[in-house]
Design brief:
The chain has 4 domains: about 130 residues, Butyryl-Coa Dehydrogenase, subunit A, domain 1 (Orthogonal Bundle); about 100 residues, Butyryl-CoA Dehydrogenase, subunit A, domain 2, CATH 2.40.110; about 150 residues, Butyryl-CoA Dehydrogenase, subunit A, domain 3 (Up-down Bundle), CATH 1.20.140.10; about 180 residues, Butyryl-CoA Dehydrogenase, subunit A, domain 3 (Up-down Bundle). Helices cover about 55% and strands about 10% of the residues. Helix 9 packs antiparallel against helix 10.
Length: about 600
Amino acid sequence: MATSVLTRTAAKGGSFLLESPRPEDVFTPVDLTDDQKLIGQTAEEFVLKEVVPHIKELEEKKPGLMVELVKKAAELGLMGGGVPEEYGGAGLDKITTTVLTEKLSLYGGFAVTHGAHAGIGTLPIVYFGTEAQKKTYLPKLATAEWIGAYCLSEPQAGSDAQNALTRAELSPDGSQWILDGQKMWITNGSFADVYIVFAKVNGEKFSAFIVERAFPGFKVGHEEHKMGIHGSSTTPIFLENCKVPKENLLHEIGRGHIVAFNILNAGRFTLGASCVGGSKQVLATASKYAKERKAFGKQIGEFGLMKEKLAEMAIQIFAVESMVYRSAGNIEAAMAAAAGSGDKIQNTMKVLEEYAVESSIAKVYGSEMLDFVVDEGVQIYGGYGFHEEYPVCRAYRDSRINRIFEGTNEINRMLIVQMLMKRAMGGQLPLIPAAMKLADEILAGPSSDETPEGVLAEEARVVANAKKIFLQAAGGAVQKYREKLADEQELIGALANMVMEIYAMESSLLRAQKSAAARGEAAAQAILDAARVFITDAAGRVENEARRALAAVHEGDMLTTQMAVLKRFAKRAPVDTIALRRNVAAAVQAQDKYPFEGK
């Protein structure tokens, strides 16, 4: 079992809006152990040697090929990362499973298959299964003797999972559950052996069940014709008088939402890590092509607008990677702190819920970053990018689903704010006192800002002020709408965008400062430049969202006053981002890959 040395207590979920940790307090890729790097290297080599050569056959759904590759990966221990060692798994910690997920995500079809099996198809039993259920299923899932799948969506119930129509009734003799209904968009549907199925007991109590493919009344539908991820299997599932042993109820009757939501939190975080892996592959491909392709007597990579694209791709990957590993460090520290005290399931649920905001951020920001990267990849390839024979075309198609599954990005934006407000009202996150304190500060008028000191000190001030801008906008929104804020979806969307940008800005800042402290400013120059560009641009996005939010909440003289306050908080020195992007582009082109790996 690979572990990292975590010498601090985990930051509370959402606390980044109120606290300013030191660079040494956050986990970054530079902190990965040799064991963790080795596992990542093993996973990457497996995909490059065993999966990539078969992409064309996988895209054409060659019978049995994906199952064969999953089983091969399992032989190397790549499919049982989340399964405890006592049940035949690798028992990897959160950070190591994050590395593993990232490195297995170079090809979308395999990444999705892995996530559905080793993630949402297995973890419900790891977290919520009885001892008997774990002994029955986990050893076979860990070795991929059996492959897992997760069945939540229905034709009329996607993100609105609790509106499911699938029913579960106890048989007259009380020995088994009878399930009836249909599930849609089931990844691994055509070849899985074990399915986590959600149904309503007596049509009312939302519950989870472990259903085997061999159970009577279980039927798999035909493959769906999808826009992308052609290498993965996606089918409907039909349950017609499906007989499930009574002991295969997972967790408790009426507590299926606990299983679903906590697993989705884990899945959302994992999806963010997966997007990092996919985007790095596209950047490397695009950088190499920019050297091969010539126009007007030059390599196209020599042109400024091409350099700008490569740089921005790397900068956005850097921001998401920084967030993902920072969150992984916090989750792992919280899991370690909770181990050995109290009920293990309750502890796990508490930790997953604790970082639900960060998990949704990873999902939304990661999927939108990947969409940006693949889009720019196609643009760098030009006409060839639109051709099926070139890898960026497939990556473009494969990327799009990430903004839809594991809860759409719109749903997740709503959740980010709702979960923050829930934590605030419950007293776990002192957002309300912070907003009140800020209101007093605003009334007191401008104060002289302290002179910034140290590496990226000006950027640190910009990040601190971005947090004030969020509190200003959110405080006004809550004050005006109170419990009806949930109805103001556009406003919530603006607030969620600010929250995400702040987490990305600060994660990038802290990682760059940590890298400079470890390696020296000269050696870390490209990473410092990336952080400066990202923070400068993200600060502009925060300001724009705040303008939108404030104008929706205030009017007249109050709006004028609020805009003046925003202008004060948003004040920042101009930065030559063109020159800084050129430096980042040079770092990309020197290696023809993402330049901040492990830094």
